[in-house]
Amino acid sequence: NCWIIDPIDGTKAFVAGLPTWSNLVGLMYKKKTILGMANFPELKKTYFSYNNISYVVEKNKKKKIKIKNTNNLKKIKIFCNFHKQNKNLKYSKKLKKLYKNINKITLDALSYCLLSEGKIDAVIESDLKIYDVAAIVPIVENAGGLITTWNNKNPEKGGNIIATSNKKLHYKLLKILR
Fold it and tell me: Which among 5, 55, 135, 166 would be 20 to 30 A from 143, CA to CA?
């Protein structure tokens, strides 16, 4: 067993004055995150997952969350952040046909939580560390979503990450990224 704690998630947004500063905590067992928690004190919201169910707690009320199932590329909402890869714009150009659907700035872990609540359809990011994503994996998966690396591998070690509302959309976006 090991705890994965993100010491700096949301710092960039917090410094910019956005209310997304968060605390991420994940519990890994046999290289799989079995418990995930993302707390957003500024928003007074906490997302967590255990026993194969994802929840949000807001105003002292716990509610199950579920991803909406959308795969029409013309109607989806995507949050993207290519971090280091922004410099060459390679991936921005690949996603050009989806520009009207893309917000090029993610809200760190909050983006994945919004996906888990069914408020957006996909999150695409690059260069994440284990502590950026491990706690998020069970929240997304247990809300009904799919989260992998861009090579369709286990995302829990970090890297280039894509999270979507369903397999069909996932593979459409992976194809565009390749």
Answer: 5
Cα separation, 97 vs 33, in Å, equals 34
Give me the residues paired with residue 15 across strands.
Answer: none
Sheet of 102-103, strand order: 102-103, 78-81, 122-129, 158-164, 146-149
Supply the DSSP symbol for 93.
H
Dump pLDDT digits (tens) for 14-66.
Answer: 555 555 466 778 888 888 888 899 988 888 999 999 889 999 999 999 999 99
What is the spatial distance between Cα 67 and Cα 15, in angstroms, rounded to a whole number? 30
- Residue 174: the pLDDT is 92
Query: Can you point out the beta strands (E) in 59-157?
Result: 61-64, 78-81, 102-103, 122-129, 146-149
Start-to-end CA distance of the chain, whole Å, equals 35
Which of the two residues, 81 and 166, has the higher pLDDT score? 166
Percent of the chain with pLDDT strictly greater than 70: 75
Query: For residue 150, which phi and psi values (nearest 5 degrees)?
Result: -65, -15
The rounded Cα 26 to chain-centroid distance in angstroms is: 14
> With b meaning 16 or more CB within 10 Å and e meaning fewer, what string describes 107-121?
bbbbbbbbbbbbebb
Specify the 3-state DSSP secondary structure of 169: helix
